[in-house]
Specification:
This protein has a two-stranded antiparallel sheet with strand order 1-2. By secondary structure, it is mainly alpha-helical. It contains 20 helices and four strands. Helix 7 runs antiparallel to helix 8 and helix 8 runs antiparallel to helix 11. The two termini are 17 Å apart. The mean pLDDT is 93.
Amino acid sequence: MATDRYSSPLSERYAGKEMQYIFSQDKKFRTWRKLWIALAESEMELGLPITQEQIDELKAHQDDINYEVARQREALVRHDVMSHVYAYGVQCPKAKGIIHLGATSCYVGDNTDLIVMTEALHLVKRKLVNVISELGKFARQYKAQPTLAFTHFQPAQPTTVGKRATLWMMDLKLDLDDLDYVIGTMRLLGSKGTTGTQASFLELFDGDHEKIKKLDKIIAQKMGFSDVYPVSGQTYSRKVDSRVLNVLAGIAQSAHKFSNDIRLLQHLKEVEEPFEKNQIGSSAMAYKRNPMRSERMASLSNYVIADVINPMLTSATQWFERTLDDSANKRISIPEAFLAVDGILDLYLNVVDGLVVYDKVIEKHLMAELPFMATENIMMDAVKAGGDRQELHEKIRELSMEAGRNVKVYGKENNLLELIAADPSFNLTLSELQKAMDPSRYTGRAKEQTEEFLDEVIEPILEENRHLLGLKADIKV
C-alpha cells in the first residue's frame, strides 16, 4: 500500500475484495478487450473480412494488459480508449487493423460500465439476501420475547423483539423488490456509433440494416445480456445510473434505520452489537462498549444517500446526444456508492449475526412500564367486580399520575398496582393485580405476525435465492 498519496478508505477499510475487483482497472480493461473481441467476432460472423486467426490473436492477449504501453501512449494522445487500442495492437500485430472497427469510445466505455454495474448489483443482491436470512433467524428466535415498543421514543404498547426485527426486514424486502426490478431492466448499449445512429456500421455493411440490427443482438448475447437499449445517443441514458444509485440509496436508508435502532437499544442495554474480546470501546473510558459498527453503518449510509444526487445532476444536464461532463463524476460517484453499500451490508450481516439480547434488562424495563399499559385491562376487571366504569377511569387517571410522579420526581419504583389495590373502589387485591402483569397479554398478534411474515413472505424469497445463501461478513476494522 502506497503511504505517500491518498487512497480511498472505501477500499482500504470498508469494501470487500470481490466488489473492489469489480471496479478495478483489471476488470475494466479486460472487459474492454472482451468487448473488442465480441465486436470483431460478430462482424466476422456477419461477413466482414476478419479472419479467425485475428480473433485467436485477440483472445490470446485478452487478459494480459500491457499497462505501461497504454500509459505512455495516453501521455502523448490524451485519449484513454485509443491508448488501449494502440496497446492491444502492439500485442496483436495481425489484428491491430480491425480492433475497434466502426466503434466509438463509448462502445467500450459505456458497455463496460453497464456490465460492471450489473455484476455489482448481483453481488449487492447476494449480500442483501444473506442479511435478510440472518434477520429471519433472529426474528424467529425472539418472536415471542415481549419488549417495550416505542413511539416518539416514549414507552408504548409492548411488541416482541422478533416483531421489531420484521420491521427491519420489511424495509430490506422493499429494497430487494427494487433491486430485482433494476437488475431485470439492465441492458447493453451495443454498437450505436458516435451519435447513436450507427452510421459507421451502415457504411461497413454496405447499407444492410438487418445485419446492423443483428450485430447489436449478437454482441449482447456474447457479453451475457438478453438485449440492448433500443435507442441512444452516443451514450446510454444517464438515467440508468440514477436508477441504480437510487436502489443503493434505498438500501442505505434501511441500513441507517436499523443502525439507529441498534444504537438506541444498546444505550438502553437491551440489545448489543458484537463486541470482540480485545476490542477497545473508548481510548479514555475503558469500560465503554460503543456501538461502533452500527455508527459506521450510519456514516457510510449518509454518504450513499448524499451521493445519489450526482447521477441525478449528470442525467439532468446532458446535452443532446453526448457531452463529456459526466465522465469524471461517473468515475467517482458510481464505484464509490457500490463500495460503500458493500461495506454497509458486510457490517449489517456482521452485526445481526452477533447480536446479543439481554432479556432480563428487557423484562425489567417492560415491567416498570407495564402497570401503566395494563390500566385498561385492570379497569375492565374492576368493572366485572362491580365497579362504575366512569368513576374508575377517573381514579385510574389520578393514580397513574401519582405513580408517574413517584417515578419521575422522587426516583421511586412504579407503585401503581399498590395504589390501585389500596383503593376500595376497584375491589381488587394486589395478588389479583399482579396476575394481570403477564407481558404476553399485551403484545397483541406480534408473535403471530412474525411467524406469518417469515413463513409467507421471507421463506419464499430465501427458497428462491437459496443458491446465494451461506455468506459470512469480512470486517477489516
